[in-house]
Design brief:
It is a single chain. The chain is mainly alpha-helical. The chain has two domains: 49 residues; 230 residues, MetI-like fold, CATH 1.10.3720.10. The protein is built from 13 helices and no strands. Helix 4 packs across helix 7, helix 5 crosses helix 7 and helix 7 runs antiparallel to helix 10. It is globular. The two termini are 44 Å apart.
Length: 305
Amino acid sequence: MEETMVTSAKVSKPRRTKRVQISSLLASAPMAIVAIGVFVVCVGYSVVLSFTKSRLFPNFNWVGLDQYERLWGTSRWIVSVENLFLYGVLFIALCLVSGFFMAVFLDQKVRFESGFRTLFLYPYAMSLVVTGLVWQWMMEPSLGLQNVVQRMGWESFEFAPLVDPQYAIYGVLIAAVWQSSGLVMALMLAGLRGIDGEIWKAARVDGIPTWRTYLFIVLPMMRPVMITSVVLLAVGVVRVYDLIVAQTGGGPGMSTEMPAKFVIDHITARGNVGLGMAAATMMLLPVLLVIGPWIYREYVRPTKH
């Protein structure tokens, strides 16, 4: 009797497991269909349109690489790529540095840690449009920080980068770093909290200064967190649009023009879908170059035991 019950339990367990697997597949099917339909199909369709002479409405008048030749012969596109490179390098570097220092500060078990954590994370909860409008006001010469400080007696103080084509990109950078540093702080803090306390004790026993411990021991151990932060920030760099439109509109002149704005303007306002899709395809390449190796490393490459 007992042997029969054991055998029955062994048979029923695989059946139950199989039913759970089927239910999981059925539950995830709608999301998979939407992901394939929206992302894969739409991206493929966009790439196809970049080889056509589509204007206001898509068509299939093939022109080969003409749209790409025209794209790289357009000064506005060249300027937007240069702006994106400068903005991206400084944005990622400053966010990593500021986020790490904020995480180190919170990791000292300071009083009101939850309050500081909320304060640091709050900008990330705001939309980029709101962030752009807030910093546009703060950098307005007649209303913002420059006016306030000058009224306090420092009449020589100047802080109006958005009106100067040479420094406008740095004004956008300030707003972007303020908005995104909190995300890096949260990731870095989680990484710091995962460091074994024995490492700190051993470093103190060996007389290693705190800054050397962070630089040569802690940071290498947080490599996965660093990679995740860079990937998230890099994707945000490539698709930056809302902040530019809200804060500068791409000006003064073309000093803050970005590829994403170039794409949207040519697809909507200028009615040149073919050129816009060619620009969008070129924007897709750096995303694949950043995300592709990360996905391969994390999910495809076999783990060494």
